Amino acid sequence: MVIVVTIEQIHSAILDNYKLLEFSEALSALFFYKMNQLIVFPISTMWLLFSFFHSKPRFLLKMLFLGIWFAVLIESYMLFKILGIVKFTGWNFGYAIVVWYIVLVESFCFSLLFRKMHGKCDHRDIVSP
User: Fold this and answer.
1) Exposure of 70 by Cβ count < 10 A (0-12 exposed, 13-18 middle, 19+ buried)?
2) Total-model pTM
3) Of 26-35, 45-54, 64-73, 82-91, which one has max mean pLDDT?
């Protein structure tokens, strides 16, 4: 979850510094946008990673969860645009989808690395006697 929040904050810093998004004047607009970055995005990503590493769901169900994950993130951005919280000046959904995909791949790789390290600590790896 830490890696997801860190990557999302780096993404936010790039958007803010290059003025690719304009927020409405209300303080609540920035609050809702930041809560989306700090709560909704990391929790939904953790939910998706849990489903990918859990043995029960089938491949088709995992792909459905991936589609739901992308849909929730796209809908949150659409909601911000409809409510007037954010105005996209140099940013669009194509860029956002690329960033979300990169975050997902990095989180997935980090989870695999963590699982491998955890296996070595429990002496369940191939190298241990």
Assistant:
1) middle
2) 0.72
3) 64-73
